[in-house]
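Section 3.1: Structural characterization of target chains.
Under the original work plan, the team committed to producing a structural model for every single-chain target entering the pipeline before any wet-lab resources were allocated. The record below documents one such target. The sequence was received from the expression subgroup and is listed exactly as submitted; it comprises 340 residues.
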Amino acid sequence: MFRGVALALVLLEGAAWADDALAQASEAVAASDYLAARAALVTAQVAGEHSPDDTAEMYRLSGIVEAALGNAQAATEAFIRLLALVPKAKLPPGTSPKITRPFDAARSYYTTHAPLDLKIATAAKPPAITLVVVSDPVHLVARARVLYAIDRGPEQTKEVAADGTDIALPAGKRIDARVIALDVHGNRLVEIGSREVPIVIIGEPAPVAVPHRPAPRPPPRPAPATVELPGRPIYLRWWPYAAATVVCAGATAYFGWSAYSDARELQRLSIDHSVLSPEFQSVKDHGQRATLITNIGFGVTGAFALAAGAMFLIRRAHTEVRVTAVPAHAGGALVLGGTF
């Protein structure tokens, strides 16, 4: 539960950060501050979790910014990505020729290439769904996210690499699903299905579990001999878990600061370097790894903290451990028991 809350907070904070960066980029373009707009666009793209419309807007603004700064090749590449998502996209009338030339070059690219085209395939027995990439000329699609609900239950999520792999779903009489194609940063490219109009898979209900009947009680046995052993196992004490909590919290804080530092460094590099440069890519990859480890650290730290609290609450002033010899067929058995 703690891990789920922590991840939700991280995603909400990241989405707010990304929205702010995209808004700043749009304002900077309107004010002709193209260097500030470029830095804001890099921040927005890396943050991820944008809607398909906002993702297309990022590519449109990137094309305008790069063209205005004299980077015709980078502008053309950005406009090619825009037209892959929105083939009918246009620039406003009266746009400077310095910007329209890369846009026209991108449009001519699609005289010999097809824009992004995605389809889905479903199966009922066993239930599964697949994202089929029919056309992706600039390799935008990196992952597929499936959100599904079994028999009108709560919505669940699965995410896999977008390589045509079947995504297995739990059994159910009715499965409502929607599929989202994501880029490498987690920005949404295309959404197939919705909450209101989902993809429906009609299957079979999950098998009903047969209740287990307890075995009959054995006949009474002679009173066992009991040996008292003092002490309590170390895995039932609170302080080892508390120590692990402190260590994990420190490591999580370190990687969190590292991810923050990498984000700042990406903003700096984006001004002087191309987003495709080795140095920029290295810092970006390091930042993504640090962010992933930070998210994992939240969950592990929370688990250790909960374990420490539970062991602290159930401790006893006097712990009693018993080792009992119990007769059994063809021999005997030792039983460990007591209060914990």
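The chain has seven helices and eleven strands.
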